[in-house]
């Protein structure tokens, strides 16, 4: 076999392995970054590094690939943290139109939900990487240690701190997909009709509404808290009647969400957090730079 043939075979083998794990690798990067665009950039760079690896020396391809992606995502996460300091208004994760089967994996669906991604934003980069790799992807501590450049003992301590941090901030009594869908359908009807009382009936007293326009589209510049304030905002603020508007129930980040179109064009996505039958969080993404992943389904896995 000549050198060119050997090179072709090596690239083909690397490609096959990368494609086999691509959905998982994307999910790792997305959960660490909250951005599909940045996750794709990380995957592209990971591929360029992976194709130069001597596969014969790799004991476990999945773990090796996760390690490459984690390291690159950590570098990007640290850079993004500085960039987000200058973001106009609240920053929300880039929403994904996900396949219906994601909701069947409770751990995966919870980990990619808008509510959980916002909780993960409160962790330090290394804490976030350790939490995601341990709690979502069930990697061993020694594998995580190699990925984040820490000792296994240090990783155990980081995992403990991250779990405690997330535990006090994550949604209490996470609703089933059916409960969320029922609440969201009632929420949708109330919003479409502008019925203030119906909105008050479905909103929790301490509900929080966030919207992300990225300085491009009109959106809230700060969170709105409380059922009365959020209900009035939804009834008269977000849903103007001066255009042809449609609202479609879809799967957003592993759970039911609303896709909003104005004059046939995608205008935004609304995801909600439901606890005990009430909407406790409403996340409205209008930034057009974050809406490319709601036109087609994105596969996520673990």
Overview of the structural elements:
The chain is α/β, with parallel strands linked by helices and 302 residues long. Helix content is 51%, strand content 17%. It has twelve helices and eight strands. Strands 3-2-7-6-5-4 form a six-stranded mixed β-sheet. Strands 1-8 form a two-stranded parallel sheet. Strand 6 (265-275) and strand 7 (278-285) form a beta hairpin. Helix 2 runs parallel beside helix 4 and helix 3 (36-50) packs across helix 4. The radius of gyration is 21 Å and the shape is globular. The two termini are 38 Å apart. The mean pLDDT is 88.
| Biggest beta sheet summary | 6 strands, mixed
First-to-last CA distance: 38 Å
How many helix segments? 12
Order of helices and strands: HHHHEHHHHHHHEEHEEEEE
Q: What's the number of extended β-strand segments?
A: 8
Q: In angstroms, what is the radius of gyration?
A: 21 Å
What topology, given as strand order, has the largest sheet? 3-2-7-6-5-4
The computed structural class is alpha/beta
Overall geometric form: globular
Task: Give the overall average pLDDT.
Answer: 88
Residue fraction in strands: 15-25%
Helical residues, percent = 40-55%
Regions with little confidence, pLDDT below 50 for 5+ residues: none
